[in-house]
Write a structure and sequence with these properties.
The chain has no helices and eight strands. With 106 residues, the chain is an all-beta fold. The chain has one domain: Sandwich (Jelly Rolls). Strands 1, 2, 3, 4, 5, 6, 7 and 8 form an eight-stranded antiparallel β-sheet that branches.
């Protein structure tokens, strides 16, 4: 079996945030987000189901009107269409998986 490894650029979608696609296929995408303290992932929604794993740091998330804090080792799922966003409380990294792939990130 042959594996295809691609290198994706690091982009800055918001102040204090960088994003890098780590792997993608039509049905799945893995993306790394790095946040500085105080940086925000603006409230938004999308049709993709998203799972989020907190690699490091601490974040306050807003998900469909509820608020909760997560830290290293935590993970959760964001349903399709759910309004969500976060504020970084302690610098860190989130690893998100999207299904299907987020073509707007390519």
């Amino acid at each position: 079996m042959t594996e295809i490894l691609r290198s994706f650029p690091i982009v800055s979608p918001d102040k204090g945030v960088t994003r890098q696609v780590l792997a993608d296929a039509p049905d799945l995408m893995v993306v790394s987000f790095r946040f500085e303290v105080g940086a925000e992932g603006a409230l938004h929604n999308h049709p993709h189901v998203q799972s989020t794993y907190v690699e490091s740091g601490r974040f306050r998330f807003h998900l469909n009107g509820e608020e909760f804090e997560v830290g290293a080792g935590d993970s959760f799922v964001i349903p399709s269409g759910a309004m969500h966003g976060c504020i970084c409380l302690e610098a860190g990294q989130l690893v998100d998986c999207f299904t299907p792939r987020r073509d707007d990130f390519l």
